[in-house]
Structure formats: structure tokens, C-alpha cells
């Protein structure tokens, strides 16, 4: 990873003296940080505003986006910093990413700093840590929404996320911390969307079959890997059989949808 100056001070002169907005100091010598949603990876799923900001970026701090499409939109002299995290791989610490953003912004007020995140920038993205660091340094920021796989993956697999008859509501949960999650809390929700569930799919399926009031072992389940990418793959099964049918498969990065909507139009 390319390093940045570790001096976190805000250079102050009569011209760029920090101002206060509410209880937050705004450093006029810093650039604004844009926290941009990169969508599903392919450029087709970027918003027009995201494309414009990427094209204008002087610094691009980006995650594991699945493809290089968005990076190819950046200008030649744009500084690019890869900070992606993927389970099972060594990755940069979140505090280092926070510091990287702060230092990039403090290098001057005339630069465009883009933090490009997969999907939507505020859905399981650790954005709170980054905006806390930016706020503490008096650096302004703005979110630019992106298409989350939570909403897009079901459509790309051919079924709606909600249905007036079999699934009028849904919940989204991380599949990382299986034992620390109160699965009983989802017992009355007709559709459950689970992100980052690849390694724990078998345990999750078992727990949900035990606690859900409306589900049985025959409740439909769809696992969608690499949603929106050319190599997208789906596994369609039931709570009882999904673990066996995906055994030995490389599931990550995937999204899991459990509920009657997952059985529509199959």
C-alpha cells in the first residue's frame, strides 16, 4: 500500500483557519471525502454521480470490487490505493484505512478524494469508523448511494425480494458471527437476507429451521455468488438440503435468501 504523510495536523493560517459547524470543526485546508457506492462491480451498475466522481478523482481508495471496471474510469494520474478485505486473506487494518483517508484529504483543499466501496457505502461497510475519523479531523464528507446486492441479487436470480402474498417484509443480517446473533429475533419475518454467509451456511440453515415460526425444512433457499458478474452462480434448494448441495463449493462472496419468495418463478 502506498503511504501518506503521517502528519494529521490541519495547517492553519488566517486564510484557511478552521471554522465550526455545530460542534464539528471544519478544516478549510482539507479536501472533501466522497464515500461512493461501487454497486455490484460492473460499470453498468454504477450511478451517474459515481461515474462522474471516479472520473474526477485525484485519489481513489477502493475495496475488492469484483471487477476493474470502475478503476478504468479514473484518470491516468489518479492515485489508487487498494484496501479491500476478503475472508481468509491478510488485509489492511481499518484504522490504517481511516488514516489513509484523513491524510489524503489534508494534503490540500483542491483535490477530489473518493472512497469507493462495493455495493452501497453504508451497508456492512465499516463506514462509521471512516466518517468518525474524518469528522474528528474536521474533514467534510458526503455519501453517494450505490446498488446493494441485498436488493439486486434476488432480481438477478429471477425473483423479487418482496411479495404481497408470501413475503411483505424482510430482514438483513451478517452471517459472520453465527453464535453471537439472536436468530430467534427473525422468527416472524418472512424473508431473511444473509450477507457473508458462505462459511457458516450449514449452521445458519439449521438454526433457522429450528427457530422460525413460519419456516419448515422445505422452505426455499437461494445462494447467489458473484451477483451481477459474468460468473454469477446460483444454488436453489431448501433449508434441509442447502448445506449438502453446496458442500465443497466455493460460495464466497455470496448472498443467501431464505423464504417463500426464493421459490417464486423457479
From TrEMBL:
<dbReference type="InterPro" id="IPR000878">
    <property type="entry name" value="4pyrrol_Mease"/>
</dbReference>
<dbReference type="InterPro" id="IPR050161">
    <property type="entry name" value="Siro_Cobalamin_biosynth"/>
</dbReference>
<dbReference type="GO" id="GO:0032259">
    <property type="term" value="P:methylation"/>
</dbReference>
<keyword id="KW-0949">S-adenosyl-L-methionine</keyword>
<protein>
    <recommendedName>
        <fullName>uroporphyrinogen-III C-methyltransferase</fullName>
        <ecNumber>2.1.1.107</ecNumber>
    </recommendedName>
</protein>
<dbReference type="InterPro" id="IPR035996">
    <property type="entry name" value="4pyrrol_Methylase_sf"/>
</dbReference>
<dbReference type="GO" id="GO:0019354">
    <property type="term" value="P:siroheme biosynthetic process"/>
</dbReference>
<dbReference type="InterPro" id="IPR014777">
    <property type="entry name" value="4pyrrole_Mease_sub1"/>
</dbReference>
<keyword id="KW-0808">Transferase</keyword>
<dbReference type="GO" id="GO:0004851">
    <property type="term" value="F:uroporphyrin-III C-methyltransferase activity"/>
</dbReference>
<dbReference type="Pfam" id="PF00590">
    <property type="entry name" value="TP_methylase"/>
</dbReference>
<dbReference type="InterPro" id="IPR014776">
    <property type="entry name" value="4pyrrole_Mease_sub2"/>
</dbReference>
<feature type="domain" description="Tetrapyrrole methylase">
    <location>
        <begin position="32"/>
        <end position="242"/>
    </location>
</feature>
<keyword id="KW-0627">Porphyrin biosynthesis</keyword>
<keyword id="KW-0489">Methyltransferase</keyword>
<dbReference type="InterPro" id="IPR006366">
    <property type="entry name" value="CobA/CysG_C"/>
</dbReference>
